[in-house]
Amino acid sequence: MSAYLVTNVSILGGEPTDLLLRDGVVAAIGSGVGFETGASAPSSTTDGEVIDGTGLVALPGLVDLHTHLREPGREDAETVESGTRAAALGGFTAVHAMANTEPVADTAGVVEQVWRLGREAGYCDVYPIGAVTVGLAGEQLAELGAMADSAARVRVFSDDGKCVSDAVLMRRALEYVKAFDGVIAQHAQEPRLTEGAQMNEGELSGRLGLTGWPAVAEEAIIARDCLLAAHVGSRLHVCHVSTAGSVEIVRDAKRKGWNVTAEACPHHLLLTDDLAETYDPIYKVNPPLRSRADTEALRAGLADGTIDIVATDHAPHPHEDKDCEWAAAAFGMLGLETALSIVQETMVDPGLLDWAGVAERMSYAPARIGRVADHGQPIEVGAPANVVLYDPSVRRVVDAASSASLSRNTPYAGRELPGRVVATFLRGKATVLDGRLT
Amino acid sequence: MKRHLLSAADLTRDDAELVLRTAEELRSLADRPIKKLPALRGRTVVNLFFEDSTRTRISFEAAAKRLSADVINFSAKGSSLSKGESLKDTALTLEAMGADAVVVRHGASGAPHRLAHSGWVRSSVVNAGDGTHEHPTQALLDAFTMWRHLGALDGRRVAIVGDVLHSRVARSNALLLQTLGAEVTLVAPPTLLPVGIDTWGVETSYDLDAVLPKADVVMMLRVQRERMNASFFPTAREYSRRYGLDGKRMRMLQDHTIVMHPGPMVRGMEITADVADSDRSVIVEQVTNGVAVRMAVLYLLLSGAEGVTGTDESENDA
Fold first, then answer.
1. How confident is the model over A48-72, as pLDDT tens digits?
2. In the CATH hierarchy, which fold is given to the domain comprising B8-134+286-303?
3. What's the pLDDT tens digit per position in B21-36?
4. Residues of B (85-114) whose Cβ lies below 8 Å from A
5. Cβ–Cβ < 8 Å for A435, A291
6. ipTM score here?
7. Among A residues 305-324, those touching chain B with beta carbons less than 8 Å apart
8. Do the Cβ atoms of A320 and A245 come closer than 8 Å?
9. Which of A115, A125, A284, B209 could form a disulfide with A152 if both were Cys (CB 3.0 to 4.6 A apart)?
């Protein structure tokens, strides 16, 4: 197994040092360490590749709790292989694959298939998310225990794309997953309040004649679910929080000591609903882009820990599903390859989060919520060598055509973003080197 | 004028007044034995209708034909929303046939905007009604009708009454009438006014009786009975009692006040037959004016600076 010596690298933005990755673990840290350092095991190599880490920040491998890999069923949009390649390029070493595939990941068989495809692809670890209800239909619980006990060891369950809107069903799901330390990740969207909804409900939706998706439809479900989670003593995770009011509700629930976690998506941190004025459905996403006040509340919530994590909601769609009129277009946008840059732009550069904070929000915390043992660990000697090297000093213009995703629906095409992932290591093996897949 | 007419907001006051003046000139054609001008000879206008709307389509068709344009009617009922050919492929087909202007009616808000700005077609795009967004030529013909009856619209009070939430006519009228200096009041039950209407620069009211005595124009909007199934109002009868224009309410109007309706009317719902057929009603005249206004729009978009009126066509949206 090859070894990598990263010299003069700043771990979490700290003083530059040298970092040795060998035998799948962080073998040594400190100025002047070399390939011979601590090479006691017979299998250890005493040579390897040296990477000049000057100006680079080393972060623990990123963990995405919310990725759509589309396989099985929509291999025209993304496959486990293409999606995990995009993930590696974005600095991720683990992704959670959402359940809304065709067929839905609501049985042990489907989650094991996705899990195996991830292992075969090898670009990052794939943790399948199981559907809460059969076929995402919101009527009957899927076999949550069978998925938990399967080879895929599912711990996160979600009907994402649809809300578990039935209060009794949500209560039962929250209770049931306690048996295997699971968590329900809720797509908070009151269905009756959002029939035909196309964009954030506000001044612009009224003017554009696009049916509004009101903030209250998200907030009402989050409030209810927080109360339910508290009542039955379960873990609740709130997907893609998008409104200032939702942040306030989650903050209040945490203050009360309830076991609630929440995620924000990069696009909700950066983009606002005025982009809908173009009628270009590249900006159509669910929940929709909100107002400037909402993005600011999300940033503040992510800074103070109300929002625990950043999750991408990477949602690939084939070209024809975006090259059409707004109402006919699919919801969703790519996110894996741009997430870290957007977090830098919206959180790090304005001073809201330091690199240790980024590690917490994009690696440690998502791994904790997903109960993933091998990821989300600090870069310390002996820890699995899941590491990303990131250059925050450069700026780049996003080129949709160069994405590793099979889809091209990035809302950032042509936009200049800060930072670049230089290398990603999965258990000491480079998946990305010099910004390219290995 | 811009190259496309997608929204009433695309029109400056000068643009709008140019359309009205041009329409006035063209309207006189209707009284001549030969109702045809050679202005657009050799040009092709495509009526691309994804929604049924016979009245709007024949109005555009008559307008284009009176200007000697070739007209192709393309009725593509069932958009890409319902498994038909996509908007893009339809547009590419029309482009390949050499359309100079595409008049598009579509159920999806923003569809004409996509057609104009996605690089699918090079022709001028005229919005003939998109979803619940806009219907700018309707607003122009409404303004034209008001202008013919009342003169300049500065300071004139226009009450627009009914289902504002779902009405593209209300949106376009609110924009255009303000551009022309009128004071607009939108009257509806609170459920049928869009969120954020306080930013439209118009007055709003829930009380029709309070608005009528001051109005110079009362424009009634079509209200679909089915809206009551989505709880926008309890029953059709209650709607009519509170927001319908009947003979009793008509007697509250000033002598010069005109009553308008973009059609098709639901008689007995938003307007009673005696009002619709009264002397104040200019509803039939709106239809006549629609042809003249659409002639003016097609003429100004397609033939530019030359000809009857002298316009400056500048390309504002490359």
1. 999 999 999 999 999 999 999 999 9
2. Rossmann fold (3.40.50)
3. 999 999 887 778 888 8
4. 86-88, 106-111, 113-114
5. no
6. 0.90
7. 320, 323-324
8. no
9. A115
